[in-house]
Each structure stands twice: as structure tokens, then as C-alpha cells.
Amino acid sequence: MMMHDFAITENYVVWLDLPVVFDPALSARGGMPMRWSDTYGARLGLMRRDAAGEVKWFDVDPCYVFHVGNAHKDAAGRVVLEAVRYSRQAFDVMWQAVGGAVDQLQGSRNWALGTSQSGHVHRWLLDPATGRVSEEELDDRGVEMPTINDDRTGRRSRYLYTISENAIMKYDTVAGTGRAYGTGAGSVPGEAVFVPSSGALDEDAGWLLSIVSHGPAAASELLVLDAHDLTRTATVELPRRVPSGFHGSWIPDTAGSQ
């Protein structure tokens, strides 16, 4: 089973046991030795961070998750998980596009971030007291690379940032709204990394940093957005193209430290 990510809350680790499995026979074909399995099932697990007791498992609708946004405990004692969820069809289209094997592709063979064959922001509610689980799609736009203000990891966070084919998205998970900053036709923004402003009190007081690619023949740029309203603060033109990447990190100034 391929577990690409997991989540934490103040008391739990949230495991994602989902139906993309290791298949050694695929190695001989030169591809990635992972594929979707209709017989494996899909479940989420809650393991106490103090290791007390057994892992509590919750069966969910079949799907795959590469990247989680955040998780927290709500007022009812349930664990809330928000992540980018792929259906079987969306996973197969994307997986084949990046060189993975699929059993039988249905529908389009063309994939690009932000199309209908991408992942969508999704929410699961896991109740450790009753064993019940519910889930819902929060938006039907295709997105990836969810990020938050890292100071809110494992605790309630209101804002979730994602990227699409030519846009950076901000979701208000309390109000149930979303807004986008367009990065231009044909562009591909990289993961939007949140940088808090000094002494910030509000969760979204800070900036989003994203390296935006504009095709194989154009130079890339470092885009800086105000995280509050997604207005552009600055653009740093880079001398050459930076290939579309995956994850980024912000490291504060450490001048003078040993």
C-alpha cells in the first residue's frame, strides 16, 4: 500500500490506508510498481499519539489522497480531516500521465492539474466515540498541494491554500467559500508556501510564495501574494525556467545563529 502522507491532531495520528498497492510485477515493465486495487478497500485510522489502545479504523468511500491539508478535533470530539481526494477515474488518468500503470483507463487520457480529472478538496469527520464517519466534497475545482499556516498544524485552521493549473486558491473552510488568483493562461504555479508576518495575530496575516512556470521556453518567476486577499505583493523574475516542482518550505532568517 502506498501511503504518501498522513495527518496529526493534538492527540491523534491519522493514517490513510487506501487502495493504491505495491505490485512487484510492474517493476519488470519499467514503470512505478504501484496500481489501484478494487479489492483492497479504503479506510482511515486514528492512532493515539501516546500509543495507548488500538488503532481505530473507519471505512470510507474508495479514493486516494496524495496530500492532506490539516486535521483537528472539533467541539463534538470528532477528528476533522481535510485533504485533496482523487476518485478512481481521476487517479487513473493522472497516474498514467506520470508514468504509472492502470488496469483499464476509462474516459480521457489527457491530464493537467486543474481539470475535472484532478483531486478535489474533501472533508472527513471521524468520531472515535461512536465509530461513525461522514464525508463531503468541499469544492469541485481540480486542485493539489494543499498548504496552511504551519502554526495551525494539528489544530483548527480556517484557511487552506491550494494550486490549480493556472491559479492559486484560498479556501475559507468556516464560511465555505473560495477565491482564486490567476497566474496566467498556460502557467503552472508551484506549491503556495505560507510565510507569517512578524507578530501576526490573524491566521492569514502573511504571504504566499509560489514559483510559477510559464512553459518550457519561458523563464519562471517567484510570486509573492498577500495571503489575506490574494493580491500580488511582488514578483521576482528568475533568469531561467524552473521545472514544475512539488513541495517547498520557508526557512526564517537565521543570521547570527551558530
Largest sheet: 5 strands, antiparallel
What would the principal axes of the Cα set say about the shape? globular
Gyration radius (Cα, Å) is: 19 Å
In total, how many beta strands?
19
Structural notes for this entry:
The protein is mostly beta strands and 258 residues long. The protein has 1 helix and 19 strands. Strands 15, 16, 17, 18 and 19 form a 5-stranded antiparallel β-sheet that branches. Strand 7 and strand 8 form a beta hairpin. The longest helix has 10 residues. The model has no long low-confidence stretch (mean pLDDT 91).
Question: How would you summarize the topology of this molecule?
Answer:
Blueprint: E1 7-8, E2 12-17, E3 20-22, E4 34-36, E5 43-48, E6 56-59, E7 64-73, E8 79-86, H1 88-97, E9 120-126, E10 133-137, E11 144-147, E12 159-164, E13 167-172, E14 177-182, E15 188-189, E16 193-196, E17 206-213, E18 221-226, E19 232-237
Antiparallel strand pairs: 1-2, 2-5, 3-4, 5-6, 7-8, 8-9, 9-10, 11-12, 12-13, 13-14, 15-17, 16-17, 17-18, 18-19
Notable features of this structure?
four-stranded antiparallel β-sheet; 258 residues; five-stranded antiparallel β-sheet; mainly beta; 4% helix
Quick take:
By secondary structure, the chain is mainly beta.
